[in-house]
Amino acid sequence: MPELKKSLMDLGNRRLATVPPSAIREFDNEITTIPGLIKLTLGEPDFPVSDQVKQATKKAIDENYSHYAPSFGFIALRQEISQYLDRRYEAHYDPEHEVVVTVGATEGIYAAISALFNPGETILVPTPAFPLYETVAQVNGIQVIEVNTAPAFLLTAEKLTAVLTQHPEIKGIVLNYPNNPTGATYTHEQLEQLAAVIRQTDLVVISDEIYAELTYQESHLSLGKLLPEQTVLISGFSKSQAMTGYRIGYLAGPRQLIAMVGKMHQFLVTTAASPMMMAATEAVAHGEIATTEMRETYLQRQQLIMAALTQSGFTAPKPAGAFYIFAKIPATLTQNDVEFSYDLARSAKVGVTPGSVFGSGGEGYVRLSYAASTENLQEAGRRIQQYVSAKAKQAEGI
Predict the structure, then answer these.
(1) Span between the terminal Cα atoms of the chain, in Å
(2) Integer Rg of the chain from CA
(3) What domains lie within the chain, and their CATH numbers?
(4) What is the distance between the alpha carbons of residues 57 and 288, in angstroms, rounded to a whole number?
(5) What are the start-end ranges of the H helices in 185-253?
(6) Over the stretch 107-139, which tens digit does the pLDDT of each residue have?
(7) What is the average pLDDT across 80-102?
(8) C-alpha to C-alpha distance for 85 and 89, rounded to whole angstroms
(9) What was the pLDDT predicted at 398?
């Protein structure tokens, strides 16, 4: 095994060196070795992709889609994405110049943040939030101001106005709704109020709407419709079509912004994989039935695990979207969410994610993903109830 030359030990990107690996993945990796563990840690749909998507993938391989595609993605896929956004959300984008196909929403997030903001500039991230936004900003020398949205887990127009008054240097804002980790999303009225505040500014909005198809109450309203002139919309197929391994996402926005983001995308990956884009073309064109069936199943699973948590003394706002529950640890148990999550994994063999990894507002909470089988969720609920009951008996000295 080669050993690095000693004089090169200090080599490397200093910003990257200050950023820890993904806390979600790190915690998941640490508890994965526990025998018999039921993992509710990752946002990984347990559904297979549809047969139509599988066939489209095989067909693309058989027809030798093994070469470079256009950097922005196949025009047929961009046209389907454009039509889908128009049909579903009344958001209008020119597929030629205003849509880019990315290697998952993750690459889209990196390309957007790194292309649109400069080192030393400041962006706003409402928390709890998916940690990637802040990580990408840190690697690029971009300052982040967190806004704690607990306990409702929504950024209000009033709170946004207050923070912008206090920090006029803010150049952009990252919004994610339905939200990971909380499952919260905006009503139409709330989002319109938020958009009205942003419209009075020169903020660029990175709107991560990857969970748009997984809403359970009011229909999803896109900022691509309300605020198209200031918004870069990010989405993809991982959550709505269970295509996490296909790694296809997309960006949409004003031509001038997409030109910059598309350039960064080109430097990062050149283009998304050709067979996977052909599969995504099928998914976006004909995948709405599969998505509807998954959404209905998720809602049933949500109700199941919410009932078990409530009976165990956890409190959580009812998720309006995505497939996560962000639950407050009962006051009778340790409020150190990292310690609690480790103990739950070791003692009850249930894996959840500590809330503090999602930033301010997450301390004392845990995130549970119900993108798991109904059987596993039933058993996890039973184990959590037994765990809390056993802790109560220990406290009483029984």
Answers:
(1) 55
(2) 22
(3) 6-48+289-393 (3.90.1150.10), 51-287 (3.40.640.10)
(4) 18
(5) 188-199, 223-226
(6) 999 999 999 999 999 999 999 999 999 999 999
(7) 98
(8) 5
(9) 61
